[in-house]
Here is the input.
Amino acid sequence: MDAFLLQILNGLDKGSAYALIALGLTLIFGTLGVVNFAHGALFMIGAFCAVTVQRILSLSYLTEDPTQKDFLGRPLQVATPYVESWFGTDIGSAIISWSVPLAILFTIPIMLAFGYAMERGLIKYFYKRPHADQILVTFGLAIVLQEIIKLFFGANPIQTPEPDALRGSLDIGILLGLDANAIIYPIWRLVYFFFSVAIIGGIFAFLQFTTFGMVVRAGMADRETVGLLGINIDRRFTIMFGIAAAVAGLAGVMYAPINSPNYHMGMDFLVLSFVVVVVGGMGSLPGAVLAGFLLGILESFASTTWATTTIPGINQIVIYLVAIIILLTRPRGLMGRKGVMED
Amino acid sequence: MFGLDSKDTKLLIVVALLVILAPFILNPFPTDSALAQFNAGYPDLMQRFVIFGIFAIGFNILFGLTGYLSFGHAAFLGVGSYAAVWMFKLLSYNVIPAIALSVIVAALFSVLIGYISLRRSGIYFSILTLAFAQMSFALAYSVLSNPKFNLTNGETGLQVYPGDPQVLHHEGLPDVPHLFGIAMRDNFWEPVFGGWSFTFNNGYYLCAVLLIAVFYLSIRIFRSPFGMMLRAVKSNQQRMNYTGLNARPYTLAAFVISGMYAGLAGGLLAAMDPLAGAERMQWTASGEVVLMTILGGAGTLIGPVLGAGFIKYFENIFSKINDNVLHQWFSFMPDGMEDFMVFVLHPFIGKGWHLTLGLLFMLVVIFLPGGLVEGGQRIAALFRGGRKKRGGAEDGEHHPKPSPHVAE
Here is the structure.
């Protein structure tokens, strides 16, 4: 029982990332009908926003501390971050420590603007072109974005620690009335899970309960009719593209402490997220979320020692196997509707 | 000739001459001159031109004709390489069984993958092939290299060790891949004319002969009723289904043929250098062949070969250029200007080659969907139009024709 629960929990953080990226992909696909191969790059840019904010906040100046000596006997150079000198040591160090959550505030406008610019500047011209061209141009864009990030940040993963207060792990077993030490789980992964649930809930609420969301849903169902009613649906879809980019960016920011960002993390996630979208059903938002979590959990079950000793390497291929089986038995995916991306 | 019309015969002869004379053509600069760094006539690079040319020709039979965009073709290349190295390990270093087996194994693989993937088309197909390729990569990289059952030798890559059986190997045969005793890595002629030196490599000519053969085959496929049927799939699969034709056997055949081309390329890669690694199957490698085909011109005969040569050549050149070389080039400029130019170009050279490639690829997809071939045609049309009348002929280009509706 505990082991079972532990595997489910282990799958949640990866599953959350899959769900968020797949949600963004589906938003773009459902509204604009574009397959965005650059979505993984947006996830990666989000993660590097966290790195950037952390670096900016810890910008420091050097002072000489006459009381301490370095190994050559000269006065020790002490780096003091500017934020510490402006806000005092306590608040300053707290700000640096909380830089990843703070990066969220920075990421949202950046990613919204980036998504908006990407749609207006590039994707717009590809609506009338075949899907193959859309795939190709976004693939090219993904390479370019990845290489630009590599240019500025280098090829090595960059450690981006979570806030001190959220470091360490939590004994969930005790909370649930089980034995102590039965289920120990890192706090930050729990935070990531709740964060992604909040974002997913926010997106669904936005689409369900606002007028804007209603129009967008109507446009997803029948773009032409909505256009004929005198509503500028293109503008709204552009904004949805921005929102989808922001979702990917947020998924990336919060994922930075779990997996040190490197320039190709986006590509790694993208392939799996596509599989998630296909399994969930192309164009189905709940399907994307459901499949994201399911596949994340499945992967974690396949990584148990029992599974890997029974079938070596099953954890590497289980997602693809499941995707193939699902596509063969349920070609529309788990929750795909009739008429969306049919042949 | 050979059942081709005169235009295709000319094309085939031109390609054959270019490939056979490549050691001369690709070494236009004397060895000692400053421009010698632009020479590409050394065996290793020429082999890559030809091998990736074969790979791209095969990919083009699928993508160019049927419009099915496979993002997993590198899997077949990798499988071919593994099959060839296993032949080296078990039989002997002779390349004939190795290449034969690599084509056969790739064909079997592509039947399996194609049968499943071709149930869907459009993006689904792309994603399915991508998933299969990533799965093969994961299998080769870690799953199939455990101590109990080591098929791929994981990260190290599969290679021939002295303890391997090699049952047909005997004294007198070279200890490197060979064709009945002719070692692939040896050069059979290294003439020096004045300042120029050229290298004629056994392995390169094996690849070259095969390239000409498979290029001829691809012309025949393009011109055959079968090729016509594949084009029909690309232009409107639905209509084809309504006329009572089942498109799937045709697309599957195209998929398997292109998989065999990829397997051949993989086998040749192993024959030139008896080592097979999982990174050959990674999806970036699949992306590369897509880039080559699109850059050269998908659906054209010569395009993929041009694209493969173009990418491999500039990959090689760009990786060699560094800041010092740039400083030399711009040394005629005032100092500040020189530093500025080097600063601007720095991200695009050396390790930044992928950035250049990505940008170039985007530009081609956006402005020149027909690739280099279309670019050449446009320039030719510009010259012809320029002589007759200016302006009028250009207009058609500004309003591109609606592109064919690729199966979706």
Q: What stands out?
A: Residues 389-400 of chain B have pLDDT under 50 and may be disordered. The longest strand of chain B covers residues 187-189. The longest helix of chain B spans residues 248-272. Chain B touches chain A through 54 residues (CB under 8 Å).
